[in-house]
Amino acid sequence: MFFMSRKKAEMVRAEDALPGRAAAIPTADTHFLSGRPLTLSVPEGMEVAMFGMGCFWGVERMFWKLEGVWLTMVGYAGGFTQNPTYQEVCTGQTGHNEVVRVVYDPKVISYETLLQVFWEGHDPTQGMRQGNDVGTQYRSGIYTTTEAQAQAAQDSRAAYADQLRKAGFGAITTEIVPAPSFYFAEDYHQQYLAKNPNGYCGIGGTGVSCPIGTGIAQAG
C-alpha cells in the first residue's frame, strides 16, 4: 500500500503516460445549480481562472458560492493524457491534476479575491497530496490565463509564504504555470457536492489568513 501511494505521488514521465483518446469524455450539458450551459465559451467581459487544490468536489463548491462567479466546472489539466477518464487520472499515470475552471466577472470579484480563496482553502505545503488524498492529481496549482494573473499569483505566493513561515508551516509547493488544456470531468463529478451534500471531500485550510483579496481585479 505504501509503495502504491508513493508511486502515485511521483509525476509520470510523458513517454510513460497513458495514451488517452481523441474523443472528449461526455459531461453534463448544464451547471446543476445555475442551469447555464457547461461550456468553454466565455461571455464578453468575463475572465477565466483555474486552480488545483485537492479533491475538486469541495474546491468547486468554494468558488460557485462567490458573488461574481458566473460558472464553475471540474476537470483535468496539467498532464499528458488526452481526454482522460477519472479512473485513468486516479492511477497517477496521466500526470493530470484535478482542477476547477472558474469563469468570473472582474467588475464584481477580483482575481486577488479568488487567489485568497485558493490559498486559504487548502494546505499548499503538502506536495503531491492534500490531507489523506495522495497522488499527483491532488497537487496545489494555479494555472494562469494572462501575464497579469501570473504576476498576481507569484506576488500572492510570496506574501502567503511569509505568513505560513511565521505560523510554523513548511515551504509552499504550489505550481504556477500558464493554463494548460482543460479536459472536462465526467457528468457525475460536476457540482458533485450540490448533488450529494454529504459527500466526502478531504481538503482543509491551514487556518492562516492570506493578506490579499480586496477590491476590483487589477489582473486580467
UniProtKB/TrEMBL annotation:
Which GO cellular component term is one of those annotated?
cytoplasm
Q: Which reaction does it catalyse?
A: [thioredoxin]-disulfide + L-methionine + H2O = L-methionine (S)-S-oxide + [thioredoxin]-dithiol; L-methionyl-[protein] + [thioredoxin]-disulfide + H2O = L-methionyl-(S)-S-oxide-[protein] + [thioredoxin]-dithiol
**Pfam name, any one:** PMSR
Q: Which residues form the Peptide methionine sulphoxide reductase MsrA domain?
A: 49-201
Annotated GO biological processes are:
cellular response to oxidative stress
Q: Where is the active site?
A: 55
Instruction: Identify the enzyme class.
Output: oxidoreductase
Record function comment:
Has an important function as a repair enzyme for proteins that have been inactivated by oxidation. Catalyzes the reversible oxidation-reduction of methionine sulfoxide in proteins to methionine.
Give the protein's recorded name. Peptide methionine sulfoxide reductase MsrA
Q: Which gene encodes it?
A: msrA2
